[in-house]
Amino acid sequence: MSAEVQAFIQGFPIAAISGGAALALLILGAMIYVVLTPHKELKLLMAGNSSAGLALAGAMIGLALPLAAALRSSLGLVELLLWGAVTVLVQLLCFRVVDVLLKDLRKRIVEDQAGAAILLVGVNIAVALIVAAAVSDPNLSIG
Questions:
Q1: DSSP 8-state assignment for residue 39
Q2: Which of 7, 51, 86, 140 has the most CB atoms in a 10 Å sphere around its CB?
Q3: pTM here?
Q4: Phi/psi at 37 (nearest 5 deg)?
Q5: Is the model more confident about 110 or about 11?
Q6: CA torsion, points 36, 40, 42, 43, in degrees to nearest 10?
Q7: In whole angstroms, what is the distance from residue 72 CA to residue 64 CA?
């Protein structure tokens, strides 16, 4: 058996477990986000509300970027799970900050005001990129 095949056989279970854990964290994070945000994204989305779809897509991307970075750089499953929890909290904080800035983000999304949703997506992605960079740099130190 070739070295490549042996490496695949040895590495596949680890990749499957880690990848599965990251996907589970993404799904769980999205579910928590949907439950804790004051508007009902899925109901609004099914009714044709584009802003709800944009907001939820931004949250999903905002969750996925740091999770992908954590998956790449984590030393184990526990570290990946910890970063997953941080990611969910950061995305909820993003929603709250934009809500304060725009004065009633929930109402704006319910009224399908795309501008508000686009700003939320931008904040989600910008913050996610910063978190992802912080998570993925093993040489990052302060001091």
A1: S
A2: 51
A3: 0.82
A4: -75, 150
A5: 110
A6: 160
A7: 12
